[in-house]
Each structure stands twice: as C-alpha cells, then as structure tokens.
Design a protein that fits this description.
This protein has 301 residues and is mainly alpha-helical. The chain contains 14 helices and no strands. It has one domain. α4 packs across α10 and α12 runs antiparallel to α14.
Length: 301
Amino acid sequence: MKNTAAEGRGLSQLRSWLINPVLNKEFTLRMRTPRSMWTLFFYLLALGFIMFSAIYLTQSLGGNSRSFNPENSKVLFYFLAFAQLGLIAFMAPGLTAGVISGEREKQTLNLLLTTQQSSSTIILSKLVSSLSFMIVIVLSTIPIYSMVFLYGGISPKQLVLVFLFYVYIMFVLGSFGIMFSTLLKRTMISVIATYGVGLFIFVGTAILFYVVMGVMQQMSYNSTNFSYGWIGHILAWNPIAALYSILEPSLTTEIYQMGYSSSGQKKPAIQLWQEFMLIYAVLAALALWLSIRKLRPRLKK
C-alpha cells in the first residue's frame, strides 16, 4: 500500500510538472469545444478533397482508369505535402498571434501575472497549447497520406521527416506569433505582423533568391567556373525549398554548387533543410526570449 501511495504521489507530481494550471486551462478550452471538432472536420475534408481530386486527375491524364502508375504516387505525395504546408502556414499564425494580446484585451493578463506561474511558464504553456491543436490536426491526416503511401515510391523516412518538419515550422511560426502578440499588445496588429513575416519567409526569400541569382548569372556570363553557390544560403531561409530538399536531396547539391563545373563540385557539408532548421531555431529562441522578457511590465527608473 505504501508503494502504491508513493507511486501515486510521484505520478501526481509529474503531472503537475508537465501540465501546469495555465496549460490545463488552455487544453480544456481548445480541445473540448464544438469549434475544434468542426475545424478538424473541415480541415480533413478539404485535404481529402484535394487528394482524391489529384488522384482522379492523374488517372484521367494517364488515359487508363483501371490502373494506377506507382510513379504518380510520388507526385501526389509531393503535392499533398506542399498543400498541407500551405495550410499550416495559414493556420499556425492565427492560433498564436492573439494568445497574449487576447488576455490583455479581456483584462485577464494582470490576474495571470499575479499567480505563481513564471513568465517562461506562461509563454511556453500558451505556445504548446496553441500548437497542440494544430499538431492533432496534422497527425489526423496520416490516414490520408497512407492512401498515397500504399502505391509506393515514397520511403518511410521521408514520411517521418515531412511530419517532423511540419511540427518544426509550426513551432517557428508560433514563436513569431507569440512575440508579436506580446510586443504589439493588439490582436489585429499582431496577426497582421505575424502573417507579414510569414509571407516574407515563404515568398520574399524566394523572390530575393531569384533576383540575386539573375544578377550573378549576368556577372558570370563571360566567365568560366564562376561560383555563386553562396546564394543557396538565401534559399535556406525558405520553408518550401527546405521541404523540397527533404523530398529531393539532390536539390542541396544543385543549389550550393551553382557556377561550378562538374569536376569542381563537392558534396555539401550540410543539407538545405538542416541549415533551415539551424537558422530558425536561433530566431525562434530569440523570439521566445524576447516574449518572456517583455511579458511583465517593468517599472521605469
């Protein structure tokens, strides 16, 4: 009996350490509402419609409705992966950009700050609770991916890396959303700022890469073996390129070896998606640190 009571106290302490009151409240509010159920339903409905439409179009263009070319499953998987990445980029900022400013607008932030919860606990709990629902949505799409996976052409490693990349990009966008929600103090302004940063990350970095590449190609027009592979580090800031480098590892070599002759090419020391994760790990950590520092008001000296 004593051992059972000790184990019960240990589990209770572990649960209180992992799930603090802030996180428990957020989980209850986000996971047990009809809105969450309908959001999950329509998300899966939209993604399933996209997948079945792509399969139908692939079979129609193939000219044989009784068979399915296994090579087409690779294209379908890529299409589904990028479609879900776009949905995550659209939903993740909206889930996190108002968590702190919303508390301030409802005049409940001051009450939250008077509790025994530290600033880091409040910020991290808000981030985890906001992204947990998105993680549930992403994991619920595994059966949809498995329908394409059964046709072959996709390795289990790629499937696992893609889903881990989804979780990582949610964490990055969520960190930026938390930061703007803490600094700007207005939900509408913080949402606009978060989507603006996301637009630059997804579109602006790609435009910058192609502009710089065009300039470097003009400069190397009359030169031989003029290397400008350094501009691949610009593309390493782009999530779409990072995801594509997971699906096609040869992209890293092509990007980092631009301008070299075939004899001068060397194997890159790091993959494009690995550099992407290193860059945004630092930026996300800085965003969370700034959110923690600016959460509580400071007295002017």
